[in-house]
Structures are given as C-alpha cells and as structure tokens.
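Bit of a strange request maybe. I'm writing a small parser for structure token strings and I need a real example to test against, not something I typed by hand. Could someone generate the tokens for this chain?
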Amino acid sequence: MLFSILSLAIAISAIYLSYKLTDEIMRLLIKLIGLFSLVLSLVYALWLIQLLVVMIILVTSNCAQPHCLRRINCSSFCASRSNCPSLPV
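Reply from user aminoacidic:
Good idea to test on real output. This should exercise your parser:
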C-alpha cells in the first residue's frame, strides 16, 4: 500500500514537472518516468481501486474524447451521456 502511494506521488509530481520544462528531451524522459510510476501504482494498488479504474475505462465512451472523428452512439451506461454530441436534442 505504501509503495502504491509513493509511486503515485512520484507519477503526479513527474507529470507536473514535465509541463514546466522547456527542453523536449527532458520533458519526454520525465513523462515516461511519470507514466511508468503511474502504471506501477496501479499494479500495486488494492484490488478495489484496480476494479474502479477498469470500470471507469469501460464506462467512458469514445465520443467523449475530443479526437474522435466518427459518430459513436452512447450506451445507456455512458458516464458522459448528458454531454454526448451524438444524442439528438
């Protein structure tokens, strides 16, 4: 549990630091360290937190993403159903 929290703190601080840097190589390296720490924190997290992350990924639809080019109909379990651009008004 302590390792998971420590890894999550490293991930958050590394990703925050990467936005402040101007050098592109260092920014990329710090982001990779942050993403690796984020994955480690999810691996060592409690199973309830892991289940919650998986459920959030499954419930969030593709139409909520800004880079989605095709129209996707929202499911009835969509978390962003109230803001969905594919639903008729």
